[in-house]
Design a protein that fits this description.
Number of strands: 0
Strand content: under 5%
Structural class: mainly alpha
Number of domains: 1
Helix content: over 70%
């Protein structure tokens, strides 16, 4: 009597695992998308602040970290404030790049070209919109800030790609052994 091999796709266990796997990716898409929306909301909230409020907030941060970073007072306080503001721009968009990269990783995996192009396009649109909003609040709107913002998002996306590459190599190495 011949034994029939069941196709692994017909197994109840496989079907449950496959549904769980699909749900896991859907949950990742939802979580990372929500994070991206929160970051965009935070970015737009910050850009809607007047120059006075924004300066007060950054000056508070400068007062806390300047003694640690520059104990010998070699950097002028005004210049240091400018550096802190630019670093904040970079960091906000770094978080956006991470969130958008996580969304794309869950949605498309590592193979799709859209994985890189869509987050970069969204980040650029958010950066331009951010500067546009700032122009209505009495703050300066600079092209250089768009480049800083876009650089932060690009760096965040590159970090996601690097982590995916590490995971891929670890899985590949594990499969070979």
């Amino acid at each position: 009597m011949k034994k029939c091999r069941r196709n692994i796709g017909e197994s109840k266990l496989f079907k449950k695992w496959y549904i769980f796997r699909a749900d896991k990716y859907l949950i990742g898409i939802i979580i990372f998308s929500l994070l991206a929306m929160l970051v965009v909301g935070y970015i737009f909230y910050n850009s809607s602040q007047t120059s006075q409020v924004s300066n007060e907030r950054s000056n508070e941060i400068v007062e806390e970290i300047k003694p640690i970073v520059d104990p010998e007072e070699k950097i002028d306080k005004k210049d240091f404030n400018e550096y802190v503001r630019k670093a904040a721009h970079f960091f906000e968009f770094f978080l956006l790049g991470l969130a958008l990269g996580g969304t794309m990783a869950c949605a498309y995996g590592k193979t799709a070209k859209i994985f890189v192009s869509l987050p970069l396009l969204i980040s650029l649109l958010v950066a331009v919109t951010d500067e546009f909003i700032q122009s209505f609040t009495g703050r300066t709107s600079k092209i250089a800030d768009v480049f800083i913002d876009f650089s932060g998002a690009t760096f965040g996306l590159l970090m996601v790609l690097f982590v995916i590459l590490l995971i891929y190599k670890a899985r590949r190495k594990k499969a070979v052994c």
